[in-house]
Specification:
This protein has 191 residues and is of the alpha+beta class. The protein has 6 helices and 5 strands. The chain is 59% helix and 21% strand. Strand 4 and strand 5 form a beta hairpin. The longest helix is centred in the C-terminal third of the chain and has 43 residues.
Length: 191
Amino acid sequence: VIIIGPFFIFALTLITSMIDRRLSVQALQLQASEARFRNAFEGASIGMALVGLAGRFLQVNQALCKLVGYSEEELAATTFQAITHPDDLDAGLDYVRRMLAGELPDYRLEQRYFHKQGHVVWILLSVSLVRNAEGASLYLIDQIVDISDRKRAQDALMETARQLEQSNRELAQARDAALAADRSKSEFLAS
């Protein structure tokens, strides 16, 4: 027969109270942490997405919605594969495969997405993999930056360089023709 005295009941009540208080503090800390993440995710100036291992958008922010022209609900109903330009898809899928295999911790890639209105949006995609405590893959974190303006500027610069190269070739041909004409004139006058 175990006799439970008042001291034991007091100690048990005190321990229970301390455990309850600790759990309450941990719950509040978890809520605060989740709120900070949600605010950082939603308030980010770049596109962000949590993406399932098969490519489905699990959660997206407004910056990504604005970038590609789709609502959160529309993106949640599709995959990144559906909005990725077909010429860029294989490289992206290969990077994901390599991350899931443990060959890469993360990756960065310039690629094209299709905007809902049909035009191409150039992006810089940074992807990392989230794993659980046992190491199993859970989901991907995508950070997406619009680099369309930079790509247009690069294309314009390349076109200007091509035109400059063409102009230099034409000037060199004109110079060579002028020099040849000058030699012919000198030879004619010398004879």
